[in-house]
Amino acid sequence: MSQSQAMTQFSIQPRQPRPAHPQRLLGLACAALGVVMLFGQLQIHAAEPPSPTASPNGSVPSGPAQPAPPEIVAILRDLDAASSRQNLKAVLKFYSPNFTHADGLTYSTLQQAVTTFWKDTKNLQYSTKIDSWQAQGNGYILETTTTIQGIQTAADRDMKLSATVKAKTKIVNKQLVSQEILREQTRLSFGEKSPDVDVNLPDQVNVGQTFNFDVIVKNPIGEDLLLGAAVKEPITPEQYLKRTPIALEPLAAGGLFKIGQAPQQPSREWVSAVLIQQGGITIVSQRLNVVRPIESTASPR
What we know:
It is a single chain. The protein has 301 residues and is mostly beta strands. It has helices at residues 3-7, 70-84, 88-92, 107-119, and strands at 11-14, 32-36, 95-101, 121-136, 139-154, 157-172, 175-190, 197-200, 204-206, 210-217, 226-234, 243-247, 249-250, 255-261, 267-277, 280-291. Helices cover 13% and strands 47% of the residues. The protein starts with a helix and ends in a 10-residue tail after the last strand.
């Protein structure tokens, strides 16, 4: 079975919800909302640290307890500044022409993804902490956690964008040569009463494994009508450039409660939920990595 065939077996089905606030269900037709599943190549920065101290044997220790080398900090700081200005030409100077990405992005498709993302996004602010680093040959391996704030236009509305991305990046000769996203969650919200939600979804599951996908509305619903939908999409370079229509349905409980079935082949998926109530909209998208059992590792926290 091919990976594309296996991906079609991935599904999200309703499951018995936990008790929630009562609400009336009105005979409304399902709506459709264009959801932007594109969040581009997220950049990183860190505060300027003091120079690392060499150990007695002359080697430079690495890891979260030691400050990153000043040259790496400078690269990330400048890259972050260029991204916040949405200066594509300046950003691309920090990427190797042979750049590779675990999601299948290349130097060329990276340009397309960033251009599309920035077209509908403004007031971007990037902020990152370096979780760990190590020297490797003539380069460095970094693990970072990036937060992004901004405003994104979707369905003719200005929506508040908030994203958190944990990434593993290799830098050689002052350029990013490869990257893998380890964890990712993005939220879009609109309106004074956008649903405040908690998301229950694992970062990683084994091939063929079932899992719960719960998006629980925390603020009181009362008699308001709550509409929602869940969707999954494979993460591919093409998907970075697409908008996905989602059919909404009335929800009989305070959120979405679904059971997912992972495909039989390793893959990367975006699992998303849309919730709408009177006075607001919330869209949340989270990455799910599907791996073989031998690849499984404890989720980094």
